[in-house]
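Q: Here's a chain of 325 amino acids. Please give me its 3D structure as tokens.
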Amino acid sequence: MRTFKAILAVAATAALAVGLAGCSTPSSSSGGDATTPKSKLLGIVSITANEAGNALAIKGATEAATKAGWKVEVVDAQGNADTANAAFRTFVNKKAGMIFNLVFPASSLNAGLTAAKSAGIPVASWGGGPGNGIVMNTGDGGPFATIVADQLAKDLDGKGEVLALTYHGGQVCIDREKFFDDVMKKYPNIKVTKQEVRIPGFLQDGANYATSWLSSRKSGNLAIWGCWDDPTLGAISALKQLGRTDVKTYGVAGSITAIQAVKDGSLTATAYEDQKKEGATMFTTTLEAIKAGTSWKPKTVDVPGALVDSGTIDQFLKDHPGILG
């Protein structure tokens, strides 16, 4: 919830990106207080561990950490920042070697980040933005939203109506909505209606909002956009029940389910990111930060997006053999 800068191109050489790490001695800009980790425990705090993108990032980080002899523990905060802050404090008490934040805005994790920094534990943020003690974050919101929004406007020929499914509890979606809005400002003849989904509950919310929105729109130049794939996939389930084939649909992030939906024609377009690789890069980058100690400078790794629609799906599948299983 981020035009095509190589997030993974930048960090892929190290392993993958979203990663972070700690420094060795406490400082005002980064966490960590030793060139070796306090323990080989990686604590992951996810905004929703069952969502496809989060699950892939967790899988990538877990595989990389396990291979290096680390133990991994995951807390599914289910969209609740208080739960996320409590999880940070739990990992601090367990003397974790590093902590990953998946999607929560850094501004909502002040208590957890402060505790981690005080304990010298490096924190990495996947789409949550920079913040107190965060040694690395991914900037994966704007580019993705921009390429999909540009395609949406093109497909609508610059006029029509859009239902935008947003989520303000995650930094990725906040950023993607901003870039979506920037594109829509260029098209005054496209009317946008916004509805915010919940975590948990995003699939059902997507379906319910689509049903309600379409009840007064029996025809027209219509589209549905989600700040990530799943709310739009929920909306697609409603479209199928309603028998509506006239509504264009757009997601962001390119989950396996979304790629399949593009292939079968139910999703108009999405933007793909390699979240599993990003999770692995988070771990390797954090190790690099730990080894660098006080010389480490917090960084943002930009994530590239690849538009996947009916015109690119065949080549995409050739470039990513086996992605659909």
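Q: Can you summarize the key feature?
A: Residues 148 and 154 are 10 Å apart (CA to CA).
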